[in-house]
From TrEMBL:
GO molecular function list: DNA binding
Keyword annotations of the record: DNA-binding, Transcription, Transcription regulation
GO BP terms in the entry: negative regulation of DNA-templated transcription; negative regulation of purine nucleobase metabolic process
Entry protein name: Pur operon repressor
SUPFAM superfamilies: PRTase-like (SSF53271), Winged helix' DNA-binding domain (SSF46785)
Homology family: Belongs to the purine/pyrimidine phosphoribosyltransferase family. PurR subfamily.
Organism name: Pseudolactococcus raffinolactis
Domain Bacterial purine repressor N-terminal residue range list: 2-71
Transmembrane regions: none
InterPro entries (UniProt xref): PRTase-like (IPR029057), PRTase_dom (IPR000836), Pur/Pyrimidine_PRTase (IPR050118), PuR_N (IPR015265), PurR_Bsub (IPR010078), WH-like_DNA-bd_sf (IPR036388), WH_DNA-bd_sf (IPR036390)
Domain Phosphoribosyltransferase residues, every copy: 109-262
NCBIfam families assigned: purR_Bsub (TIGR01743)
Subunit structure: Homodimer.
Family matches, as CDD domains: PRTases_typeI (cd06223)
Length: 272
């Protein structure tokens, strides 16, 4: 196989195996090429991936060494994407009763989900994450997007127990939006003690749902790697959570004027 042909397949392999350690011998065998040629290929791929902000290619020496590709986007690219989606969200026909806005078209678009997944994953590059947690229903596509980029499983918390979940662990939580006690449940098979869990959801108002998921992480004897939401909505009361990252922030919704004021979330507005 010529170097140019090898580079195409090599690049494709890395893109399709994010965050997976693959040995140089595997590539040497695959391409019937010397490890020195494989290493030279990697220098080229690494440089181009860096220059075009596709992600990072790390090589690790030693017996258990190899190469790992981690998809990534730059801060600049992340902010550009967030601004594009913010413009979409400002459309007045999205206003729903109760201070929510219609997001399903945005969160139903595979391209947007891939971008949202990359933005959230970008905030946790270099951090150990073993699982993504979200709550049914609208958080699920976001969790799936982040989990496929980080190549870790995602677990779905429910508000109503299902027999198909087997034994479950439940917690009560204060829902800030409705200021009443609610319950959420997760199959006991979902997480193992000590796992580092990233919580994601589509939307936050009072923060009670996120807080409930934080207490679930604790009940499973797991560690909280972080909390990220696609958008935080306007909320007048005392928020039940403060340590979260948001991509977008809805500052105000004026039903009469049918206007939504959307700005960039704290990922972009708070000190890194
Ligand atoms: O910050 P809080 O005040 O707790 O509210 C945020 C909740 C409410 C809403 O879910 P729902 O629309 O109730 O449920 P689903 O996602 O199934 O549509 C949203 O997806 C978050 O999960």
């Amino acid at each position: 196989m010529k170097r140019s042909e090898r580079l195409v397949d090599f690049t494709n392999y890395l893109l399709n195996h994010p965050r997976k350690l693959t040995t140089l011998s595997f590539f040497s065998e695959r391409y019937k090429a010397a490890k020195s040629s494989i290493s030279e290929d990697l220098v080229i791929i690494k440089r181009i991936f860096d220059e075009t902000e596709v992600g990072t290619v790390e090589t690790f020496a030693g017996v258990s060494g190899g190469v790992v590709f981690t998809p990534a986007i730059s801060d600049k690219n992340s902010q550009e994407i967030a601004s594009e989606i913010a413009a979409l969200m400002g459309e007045s026909n999205r206003i729903l009763p109760g201070g929510y806005i219609y997001l399903s078209d945005i969160l139903g678009s595979p391209k947007n989900l891939d971008k949202i997944g990359k933005i959230i994953a970008h905030e946790y590059v270099g951090k150990q994450i073993d699982a993504i947690m979200t709550i049914a229903t609208k958080g699920i596509p976001i969790a799936q997007a982040v989990s496929s980029i980080l190549d870790v499983p995602f677990v779905i918390v429910r508000r109503d127990p299902k027999v198909t979940e087997g034994a479950t662990l439940n917690v009560n939580y204060m829902s800030g939006s409705s200021s009443k006690v609610e319950n959420m449940t997760l199959s006991k098979r979902s997480l193992a003690p000590g796992q580092r869990v990233l919580i994601v959801d589509d939307f936050m108002k009072g923060g009670g749902t996120l807080n409930g998921m934080k207490s679930l992480v604790h009940e499973f004897d797991c560690l909280l790697a972080g909390v990220a939401v696609f958008a935080e909505g306007p909320f007048k009361g005392e928020r039940l959570i403060s340590d979260y990252k948001s991509i977008l922030k809805i500052d105000s919704i004026d039903v009469e004027k049918r206007s939504i004021d959307v700005t960039l979330g704290n990922i972009y507005t708070e000190e890194k």
